[in-house]
Design brief:
This protein is mainly alpha-helical. It has 3 domains: about 30 residues; about 60 residues, no CATH class; about 70 residues, Orthogonal Bundle (Arc Repressor Mutant, subunit A). Helix content is about 55%, strand content about 10%. The strands form 2 sheets. The protein has a 3-stranded antiparallel beta sheet. The N and C termini lie far apart (about 70 Å).
């Protein structure tokens, strides 16, 4: 068992309460580059992997990484196959004269679509800005949102509207507190 007290590193002057901690510090920080010991937690993880797979530490890690990469490649191949099947179905519908349904994921940000959940503050803001052709100040947007039927007990609704306006991709900031649809 390690004794407690003040143990000072002779190289950098850092102090430790236990001799074992000073020893770990010396072997991980001040040992020559080729002789440094890996921290214990990392060594334990690699050892667990190696005992699980029956391999050495580096071999176990390489085997796990290889398995994950192979699985990812399979999923990418499945996605490519599904995309080609969807394209073939869309083409068949076009030949038959029917309109192919628009590919649109659930409403949200990014590539999935620009719609907002019905009844949300952002949906009301978007509706108000579409009805108004010119730029609007935050206080005007807030008043119009309330008139459009948005129910809220928020005492700082104008602040919430301002935050929502800054977070909407289809809204451009024109000036200080003034926004419009792009």
């Amino acid at each position: 068992m390690a004794t407690t007290g003040k143990f000072k590193c002779s190289a950098c002057g850092r102090t430790f309460s236990m001799a074992a901690h000073l020893g770990r510090h010396m072997s991980t920080v001040h040992a020559p580059k080729g002789q440094r010991v890996a921290p214990a937690a990392k060594a334990k993880r690699v050892k667990r992997l190696s005992t699980t797979l029956g391999l050495g530490g580096a071999e176990a890690l390489a085997a796990v990484v290889g398995d994950i990469q192979r699985y990812r490649d399979e999923v990418v191949a499945q996605r490519a196959a599904l995309d080609s099947q969807m394209a073939a179905l869309d083409q068949a519908l076009a030949v038959l004269g029917a309109e192919a349904p628009a590919r649109k994921g659930p409403p949200g940000k990014g590539r999935r679509g620009t719609g907002y959940r019905s009844g949300s503050l952002k949906a009301h803001i978007q509706q108000v800005l579409q009805a108004q052709s010119s730029a609007m100040a935050v206080k005007d947007v807030t008043a119009a949102v309330c008139q459009a039927g948005f129910k809220s007990k928020d005492k700082a609704l104008a602040r919430s509207v301002g935050v929502a306006l800054r977070g909407m991709r289809d809204v451009a900031k024109i000036g200080r507190g003034v926004f419009r649809l792009r």
